[in-house]
């Protein structure tokens, strides 16, 4: 990779916008305060769906629909 990408992965530069964070790199991607406020670096939370027949939980509609097709349809 290039120098800038390496510095973003090491924590010297913000992984969201590239602003300089300091020489004390921590070895992993870090975000500046502005990017944290904007929600960068956070994983979106997926809504859990429960099967109406067996009550097993799934991430989102796709997993639930595939489960119903595979386990509950003849």
Can you walk through the features of this model?
By secondary structure, the protein is mainly α. The chain folds into 2 domains: 3-38, no CATH class; 45-74, Double Stranded RNA Binding Domain (2-Layer Sandwich). It is built from 3 helices and 2 strands, in the order ααββα. The chain has helices spanning 3-10, 33-38, 60-71; strands at residues 48-50, 57-59. The longest helix is centred in the C-terminal third of the chain and has 12 residues, at 60-71. It is elongated and about 60 Å long. The model has no long low-confidence stretch (mean pLDDT 87).
Keywords:
single chain, 74 residues, mainly alpha, Double Stranded RNA Binding Domain, 2 strands, elongated
Topology:
Blueprint: H1 3-10, H2 33-38, E1 48-50, E2 57-59, H3 60-71
Antiparallel strand pairs: 1-2
Outline:
This protein is mainly α and 74 residues long. Helix content is 35%, strand content 8%. The protein folds into two domains: 3-38, no CATH class; 45-74, Double Stranded RNA Binding Domain (2-Layer Sandwich), CATH 3.30.160.
């Amino acid at each position: 990779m290039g120098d800038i990408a390496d510095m973003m992965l090491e924590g010297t530069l913000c992984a969201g916008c590239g602003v300089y964070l300091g020489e004390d790199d921590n070895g992993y991607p870090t975000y500046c305060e502005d990017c944290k406020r904007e929600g960068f670096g956070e994983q979106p939370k997926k809504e859990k769906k429960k099967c109406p027949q067996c009550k097993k939980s799934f991430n989102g509609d796709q997993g639930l629909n595939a489960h119903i097709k595979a386990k509950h349809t003849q």
